[in-house]
Amino acid sequence: MKRHYFLGGTTAKGYYRFYDDLKSILDRVMFIDSGMTSTTHPILNQLVEDYERDYEIGCVHNHVEPDKLEAMVIPERKLAVIDRSKTAHQPLLFPKLVENVVYMGEGYNYEYLYQNRNCLTQLYEEKSVLQEQAIKHFEKAHQHHEDIEKIYIEYLNFDKANRVTNDFMQKLFRSTSLHKTSQIVHRYLGAATPDGPIDFVLDLTSDIDERIFIKGRSGTGKSTMLRKIVSEAQNRGIDVEIYHCGFDPESLDMVILRELSVAIFDATAPHEHEPERSNDHIFDAYELFVDGNPDASHEQEVADLKGLYKSETKKATSCLDSIRDKTRSFEKIYQDSLDDGYVQGIIARIQNWIN
What we know:
With 355 residues, this protein is of the alpha/beta class. It is built from eleven helices and 16 strands.
């Protein structure tokens, strides 16, 4: 079985990644060094095909090229193969014992790269400028998003929200306690991409028995509720998959408790989903947590802020689209200089390391 998710993305908080969190729960890591998405994806994709028959595989997608992989994880073996260019590139703490590295640099043709050095430099600089512009637009969008939250928070009944959440958790957990240390993993369920926001909610929850679709508005306590569920699960020794918001990584969008076969997630835009199975249920935070009728009282103000928010996210998406174009041109030069035989050697080396 394959599970699809993101571990990095361009957000309102900058480029934000969760690779350190992944590494903390693994015994071994293989980094592909001096690669890039177009050159590492074929390697990772081949490895997924090789091992998906025997293991559950985590397929970590690239947010600029979401149909391509930047890492593959085998949880049962507590190992991962990762495109090192997508990580913080920190020094290796336990070389060979924990971290291993395969170097792709020797597979490139130096003369060809040298002939194209000016083009590579220009593309890299243009891509860096576009990345900063995308982040700035997401930051502005986030400011408008926070302004919407402020409107609804004024109507939030905290006592009621706490009481209803506690009742929900009591029904969810009952007397379950697994008497072990809870394992926590951090991921993104979706990401901002050049084609707009995409998510893997339905894929990640396809084998879950019960799914809770949280509805509501910005600022109506959805993320806070998820944080409380995470805390309670930890106290009970239940493993938790935490899925952060691809727009604001400090906010939570989904929690999966596979040992209970339950998923609770924010089912509002930009990852809006509706129940489609008998054990799918809606939890409406707006109806349950909010007093009054802010939708009606602030209809025009909210509509104006949503318009500003969408305008900025549209500009950010345009930047990501340009980044993809620049990245493809940059990486095409490297692809054209790469020795196919060298790539096959890297695949064989990684297969030997896994086996």
